[in-house]
Design a protein that fits this description.
The chain has two helices and seven strands. By secondary structure, the protein is of the alpha+beta class. α1 packs across α2 (43-58). The chain is globular.
Length: 142
């Protein structure tokens, strides 16, 4: 589920130019992420997000972990969610050449292990889009 969250975040950044989710709740059965956008998305745009995430899953991208000094983080890696007292060494999770993000969560070794990404619902209030999602046909789903 954490790997799917990374793919969703990068897809939102690429498609809508927004920031990665600042507020998320990741669980085994279903998860949610919040994005700040100027307007609600259409049903077609939500379907396009789902399709784009599934396309990346189908690419069988390798997922790897790299430890770096916090003063030598690659350009473009968003560190805004990290606490002020973060250690000097950061754990970066890389998904092929699609995404890289500081993260301590559990991840698959390859996107082919994720299963199908499914957006359950979305709603928009006061500039915040909430996307709820789950994974289907995966070894890790209950």
């Amino acid at each position: 589920m954490h790997t799917a969250e990374h793919l969703l975040n990068q897809t939102m950044v690429r498609m809508f130019g927004c920031e990665r989710s600042k507020s998320s709740h990741i669980e085994r059965k279903k998860s949610k992420c919040d994005y700040f956008l100027k307007e609600n998305l259409t049903f077609e745009q939500i379907a396009d997000i789902e399709s784009a995430v599934n396309h990346q899953i189908e690419q069988n991208l390798p997922v790897s972990v790299l430890f770096v000094d916090k003063n030598n983080v690659p350009v473009g890696v968003d560190l805004s969610k990290l606490p002020d007292n973060v250690s000097d060494t950061l754990r970066l999770v890389t998904i092929g050449d699609y995404d890289v993000c500081a993260c301590i969560g559990d991840h698959v070794n390859n996107t082919s292990e994720i299963g199908r990404f499914k957006i359950i619902s979305s709603d928009y209030n006061d500039g915040k889009l909430r996307i709820r999602f789950k994974l289907e046909n995966t070894l890790y789903a209950e």
